[in-house]
Design brief:
By secondary structure, this protein is α/β, with parallel strands linked by helices. The protein has six helices and seven strands. One of its GO terms (molecular function) is oxidoreductase activity.
């Protein structure tokens, strides 16, 4: 059975505009192939919990993967290992990733589990897979009307590449604090999604 984790880092939960686009991508995959299931991972303020001393100690001491301190990390990592497609919806907070997504990163990016070191470089241990990242922002950071930087996209692309995932596509929803711009951004995002070779109308799930 194919699996699709949908990781939602928005404090708005299912009311997030980025989540709405991400869910459409997931639904298209679900509709296009049998034996496919969706795993929703809502990164609410309490899940996952902040990094604690026992986790830091376990990482520093290279503890076995079944160590109790790694329980949360193992769940999140296994969801990525097992998936055929990965979908992430996130807001942009203060030019970069929100705290909830940063915690997800800190649990998933783990030495000798999702990456290793070689000649001083981090080398990913996971297989590549199609990944969609939908970013929502109240401000504008791409295009002629950009008024703020985007540190999220390059950072998160590097994070995913570090664990072995390079087949990554970003869809950006900008200017969401302005109703007119928000609607234009939604339309553009849906158009981008529709022509995506995996998550859009032409789906790799069916080969069509």
């Amino acid at each position: 059975m194919k699996t699709i984790p949908l990781v939602n880092a928005s404090p708005l939960g299912s009311a997030s505009r980025a989540y709405a686009i991400a869910r459409k991508a997931a639904d298209k995959l679900l509709d296009s192939g049998a034996n496919t299931r969706l795993i929703e991972r809502d990164l609410s303020p309490a899940h996952p919990s902040p990094i604690a001393k026992d986790y830091a100690d376990a990482v520093a001491k290279r503890a076995e993967r079944d160590a109790p301190a790694f329980a949360q990390s193992e769940i999140l990592i296994q969801e990525v290992i097992d998936c055929d497609y990965l979908i992430i919806a996130t807001p942009m907070h203060n030019f970069t990733a929100p705290a909830s997504l940063k915690l997800w990163i800190d649990y998933v990016l783990r030495v000798n589990r999702t990456f290793t070191h070689r000649d001083g470089y981090k080398i990913g241990l996971l297989a590549d897979r199609p990944t969609l990242v939908v970013v929502g922002s109240g401000g504008v950071y791409h295009g002629a009307h950009a008024r703020q930087p985007d540190y999220l996209s390059s950072y998160f692309a590097l994070i995913l590449a570090t664990i072995g995932i390079n087949n990554v596509q970003f869809i950006h929803l900008q200017g969401l604090v302005r109703p007119d711009m928000a609607e234009q951004s939604r339309i553009l995002a849906e158009r981008q999604l529709a022509v995506h070779p995996v998550f859009g109308l032409v789906s790799a799930a069916t080969g069509s």
